[in-house]
Design goal:
The complex is a heterotetramer, with two copies of chain A and two copies of chain B. Helix content of chain A is about 70%, strand content about 5%. Chain A contains eight helices and four strands; from the N terminus they run H-E-H-E-H-E-H-E-H-H-H-H. By secondary structure, chain B is α/β, with parallel strands linked by helices. The chains are: A alpha+beta, B alpha/beta. The complex binds adenosine-5'-triphosphate (2 copies) and magnesium ion (2 copies).
Chain lengths: ~300, ~240, ~300, ~240
C-alpha cells in the first residue's frame, strides 16, 4: 500500500525553503518595530508626566534678604505674568531652602555665605498640548523682572516628546508596511502555486472536486509557512531584544527609553506570529476561492 | 440522460462554433462523434462535461437543466461523468495508480477498496508493470491508457472520450473500445469523438456528425434528433438521475 | 505587422503587481535602518569625542584663598591618583576663573562673595575603550581628598555609547535580514516564474535557444522590478525621514542623534535602490542559469 | 547525417528501453518509425533531437560526435533539426504566427522576412483564418498543424515528427505528408513516428520498426543497418554539416 499522497504538492522546493524565510524576516521586522514603539511609549509617558513640572523660571536672587519684600515682589510679578499666559496651568516659587539645595552639587553642602544671591526658582506647570511661544514669554518676563530667565529644559523635553511620537508613528508605519508586504508575499506565493498547478486544479475541478476541497490544501500550506516563519521571526526578535536590553543595562535613566518591555508589549509580540499565520491562511483562502470562482 | 435544445456556442466574440444543436441521448446509448478538425467535437464534449456553458439554448443533464443549476451544485454531476481528455491531463506528481484513483478519492471512497480495484483496471489496459510509474516516465500511448482507466474507474453514467485512440495502435484501440462496450452494457452512455474511420466501421455504432456547426445523425437507433423542440423529453431521462 | 511579443511573458499579473511592492517594502525598511544607523553614527562620534573630556572630578574649594597652597595640595593629590589609574589619559584642574564661570548660570554674572568656596573642577580625559571602575576610583579619591566627587556624566555617556552601538548593530542586522529577505523573494519569484513557464523554457531550449537568450528575459524582468521597487521604497523612506526631521526640529541637541543626515548617508541611501536592482538582477541570472544547466 | 552506434538508453535505473541500436540515415532519406506503444519511438526521436543523451554508445549528428560535444555547442545543432512533438508544445501566450516564427526569431532572422513567409505556410496548412489565434483557442487538429508549421519553417536539415497526424483526419494527414515530401525533395532528411498504417502504405517509404528495444528495417533503400560497427560512415555525412 502506497501512502496517500497529496493531489496538490504545494510544499515544492521554492515555497518550502524561501517563503518561511521571507515571512520570518517580516515578522522579525514587525516585532522589532512593535517593541520599539512599546518601549518608547513608556518613556514618552514618563516625559509627558515630568513635563508638567519641568518648566522653570529663574529670577535673580536678593543677596542679603532672600525672603524679604523685594524677593516677594519679583516672585509676584513673574507668577502673575505666567498665570496670565494661556497654556500655563500653575506657577509658584520654590521655598528658599529648596533653591539653596539645588546649588549643593556645585557648592557642596554647608552654610553658604549670606551675601550670595541665591536665585529664585519658579516652578511652572504647563499644558503639554498648548504651543507656548517661549521667546515671547521670556521677553515679557524680562520686562517685569529684569534678569529673569526661562529654563528651557521643558521646551526641550516637549520637543523631545513630539519627536518620540513621530518615531512611534514611523514604528507603526513600519509594522503596517511589513504587514502589507507579508500579505503581498502570501498572495504572490498562493498565485504562483496556483499557476504552477493550474492543470492539476483544473483537472480536480473537472472531475468534481469542490472549491473547498481544492482550497484546503493551499490554506493548510499557508498556515504552516505562516506559523513557521512567524516563530522563526519571533525567536530572532527575542534574541535581538535581549541583546539590546543587555547593552542598555545601566542606561535606564532620565532621558532614554526604558528598554525593558512590560507584559502588554510581550503579549503583543507573541501575537505577531499568530497574526502572521492567520494572515497567511486567510489571504490564501481568499486568493484561491476568488480564482476558482472563475472556473465554470 | 443528455438533452440539448437549440444550443449555440461561441467563444468570446468569435463566430458560433456550434449552432442550434437539438438532440437527445437516451441512457445506455453508444455514439461516435465525428467531423473535420475544428468542427467543434471537443467543444460539444466540453458542454457535456460542464467545462463550458452554452452561449444560448438549454442543456439538460441527468434530468436537470444545467443553465438553472447553481455553480456549487455542479460537482455531483461532474462525478457522474467520466472523461478521456484529448490531452490526457494526468497529474505528473502522482503515480499511475494514484491518477486513476483520483475520482474515487474525490468522491470519498475508502482506500482499501480503491487499491485493488485500480490495480485490476490498470492491468486490464496493459499497464500492470507501470502501476507506480509517474506520467512523465510513460510513453504517450501509456498515458492515454491511464487517462482511459481514470475515466472509467468510477463507473460513470456518462462516458465521454475525445480521440481516445489517437496515440495507440489499432489492436490496443480495439481493446479499449471493447472496454467501453462492456461499460455500455451495464448502462453507461458513451460518446466517443474520433477521426479513425476503421474504428467506426468495426463497431458499427451510430455516428453524430458535426459540420458547419450543425449536427447530423447517421444510422442512429438510440439518438433522437429533435426537429420539434417542444417534444416530450421525459423518456430520455436517466432513472438514476440525482 | 504585429508588435514583437516576448516569448516569456514574465510581467504576468502576480509578479507585476506584488513583487515591486514587496521589494519596495524591503528597500523602505533597509533605507530606514540605514538612515538610523547613520544618524546614530554622527551622535555617537560626538558623544565619544565629548567623553574624552566629559569625566570631571569635583574637589571642595577653599573659601578665602581659592588659588593658595591648600587648593594646590588637593589638586596635586587628586591629579596624581587619577594619572596612576589605568585608562586615564590626562587630568588637570580648571583655572579658578573657569570654575567660577561654571557657576554663572546659577548665581548670575557678577562678583561672587569671597567667602564662597568655589569647587575645584578637575578635567579628566579617559580612554573610551578602558573599563574604569568608577566606584572604586571614587572611594580612593575620597581618601586622598575628602569631599571629592566624581561627576558621573561620563559614566552615563559611556554606557550610552555602548547602547547606541548596539542599536546601530541591530540596524545593520535589520539591513542584512532585509537583504536576505529580498534575495529570497527574487529567487522565489524567479523560480516561480520558471516553474510556471517551464514548458516554454523547455521548448525554447529544444529549438536551439541558448541559455543566455532565455536568462536575459528573467534578468531584465528582475532588473525592472528591482528598480521599480527600489525607487518606490526610497521615495517612501525619504518622505518618512523628512517627516522625522520636521518633528526633530529644535531637539538637535546634546544627547539626541542629529537627525539630519550628511552627504555620505544620502549617497548610501541612494545606493539602496541601485543595490536592490543589482541584487535582483544577479540573483535572477544565477537562479535561471543554474536551473537551465540541468537541461541536456 | 545521423549515425547511431551501439546506442543504448535506459531511464534512471529502469530497464534498457533501447538496446544496441546501430544504423545510419543518409542525407535526404525519408523513413517511417513504427512499433507498439511503449516500444521507444519517442525515446529514439529524443536522442536525435538532443533532448536525451544515450546511456551508452555513440551518436553522430551532422558529422559530429554528440557525446564529445560541449553542452554550449549544441544549440546550433538543434536549430538544424525541426521537431513535431507528440504533445505539440505550443506557447499559449503567443499567436499561431508567433509560434511558427519562433525558430526564425531564435536564429535571429529579420522580422519582415519572417512575417510573409510564416503567413504563407500557415495558409498552406489550412490556418489562414487563425493566424492571430492563440493555441488555447485552437482545436487539437489546428494545434497539431501549427506545430507542424513550426517544425518546417526553418527548412531544417533533419525533420522529426512524432505522430504528426494523430489528431487530424486522413485527408489532412495526407496533405501534411505531401508537405514533408516536398521538404524531403529539397534535401531534408525525414523521420516520422506513426501508428497509422494507411499512411505508411500510401507513401511506401522504408520503415524503421522498433520492438523489444531493437530496430529492424523494412524496405529500406536509403538506410543502412550497420552490422559492422567499424564500417566507414563518411558517406553518410551531410555536406552542409558545420
Ligand atoms: N477557447 C476557445 N476560444 C476560442 N475559440 C475556440 C476555443 N476552443 C475552440 N475554439 C475554436 O472552436 C472551433 C472548434 O474547436 P474544437 O476544439 O471543438 O474542434 P474539434 O472538432 O475538437 O477539432 P479537432 O478534431 O481538431 O480536435 C475551432 O475552430 C477552434 O479554433
Ligand atoms: N522519462 C522517462 N523515465 C522513465 N521511463 C520512461 C521515460 N520516458 C519513457 N519511458 C519509458 O520508456 C518506454 C518507451 O517510451 P517511449 O515514449 O519512447 O515509447 P513510444 O514508442 O513513443 O510509445 P507511444 O507510441 O505510446 O508514444 C516506455 O515504457 C516508457 O514507460
Ligand atoms: Mg478536439
Ligand atoms: Mg511516443
Amino acid at each position: 500500500m502506497t501512502p496517500r499522497r497529496a493531489e496538490l504538492p504545494l510544499g515544492g522546493d521554492a515555497t518550502r525553503r524561501f517563503i518561511p524565510l521571507i515571512v520570518g524576516a517580516m515578522v522579525y521586522l514587525a516585532a522589532l518595530a512593535l517593541a520599539g514603539t512599546f518601549a518608547l511609549d513608556g518613556t514618552v509617558q514618563q516625559w509627558s508626566d515630568s513635563l508638567r513640572g519641568a518648566l522653570t523660571v529663574q529670577l535673580p536672587g536678593v543677596a542679603q534678604d532672600p525672603e524679604g519684600e523685594e524677593a516677594k515682589a519679583r516672585i509676584d510679578a513673574a507668577v502673575g505674568l505666567l498665570l496670565e499666559t494661556t497654556g500655563v496651568l500653575s506657577a509658584s516659587a520654590l521655598p528658599y531652602a529648596q533653591s539653596q539645595a539645588l546649588l549643593e552639587p556645585w557648592l557642596g553642602a554647608g552654610d553658604l555665605p549670606a551675601d550670595l544671591p541665591i536665585p529664585i526658582i519658579v516652578d511652572v506647570s504647563v499644558d503639554t498640548g498648548a504651543r507656548i511661544n517661549y521667546e515671547d514669554l521670556g521677553q515679557r518676563l524680562e520686562e517685569v523682572v529684569p534678569g529673569a530667565r526661562i529654563n528651557d529644559n521643558g521646551v526641550f523635553l516637549s520637543r523631545l516628546v513630539t519627536l518620540a511620537r513621530a518615531v512611534q508613528l514611523v514604528g507603526l508605519v513600519v509594522v503596517f508596511i511589513v504587514a502589507v508586504a507579508a500579505v503581498s508575499i502570501v498572495v504572490f506565493a498562493t498565485r504562483a502555486g496556483m499557476t504552477s498547478h493550474r492543470d492539476t486544479i483544473e483537472l480536480l475541478h473537472l472531475i468534481g472536486a469542490r472549491d473547498n476541497y481544492i482550497a484546503r490544501r493551499f490554506v493548510t500550506h499557508a498556515l504552516s509557512y505562516g506559523l513557521a516563519g512567524g516563530l522563526l521571526g519571533l525567536a530572532l526578535a527575542v534574541v535581538t531584544l535581549a541583546a539590546l536590553a543587555l547593552a542598555a543595562r545601566g542606561v535606564d535613566q532620565t532621558l532614554l527609553p526604558r528598554l525593558s518591555l512590560d507584559l502588554t508589549a510581550w503579549v503583543a509580540l507573541l501575537c505577531v506570529p499568530i497574526a502572521s499565520a492567520l494572515i497567511a491562511m486567510i489571504t490564501a483562502r481568499v486568493t484561491v476561492l476568488r480564482a476558482l470562482r472563475r472556473l465554470p | 440522460m443528455v438533452r440539448f435544445e437549440n444550443v449555440g456556442k461561441r467563444y468570446g466574440h468569435g463566430p458560433e462554433v456550434l449552432r442550434d444543436l437539438t438532440f437527445r441521448l437516451t441512457p445506455g446509448s453508444f455514439h461516435f462523434l465525428t467531423g473535420p478538425s475544428g468542427a467543434g467535437k471537443t467543444t460539444l464534449l466540453k458542454l457535456m462535461y460542464l467545462a463550458q456553458r452554452p452561449s444560448r439554448g438549454e442543456i439538460e443533464m441527468f434530468g436537470q437543466d444545467i443553465g438553472k443549476t447553481r455553480r456549487r451544485d455542479l460537482p455531483p454531476f461532474r462525478r457522474r461523468i467520466g472523461v478521456v481528455f484529448q490531452d490526457f491531463r494526468l497529474l505528473d506528481h502522482l503515480t499511475a495508480l494514484e491518477n486513476v484513483a483520483l475520482p474515487l478519492r474525490i468522491a470519498g471512497a475508502r482506500r482499501e477498496r480503491i487499491e485493488a480495484h485500480v490495480s485490476e483496471l490498470l492491468a486490464w489496459v496493459g499497464l500492470a508493470g507501470q502501476i507506480n510509474a509517474r506520467p512523465p516516465t510513460l510513453s504517450d500511448g501509456e498515458k492515454q491508457r491511464v487517462a482511459i482507466a481514470r475515466a472509467v474507474i468510477g463507473r460513470p453514467n456518462l462516458l465521454l472520450a475525445d480521440e481516445p485512440t489517437g496515440n495507440i495502435d489499432l489492436a490496443q484501440g480495439l481493446r479499449i473500445l471493447h472496454l467501453f462496450e462492456e461499460l455500455n452494457k451495464i448502462g453507461t452512455t458513451v460518446v466517443i469523438a474520433t477521426h479513425d474511420r476503421s474504428l467506426i466501421s468495426t463497431f458499427g455504432r451510430p455516428e453524430l456528425r458535426l459540420g458547419n456547426g450543425e449536427l447530423t445523425v447517421h444510422k442512429a437507433p438510440s439518438v433522437i434528433v429533435d426537429e420539434d423542440p417542444g417534444g416530450d423529453a421525459a423518456d430520455a431521462d436517466d432513472g438514476r438521475s440525482a
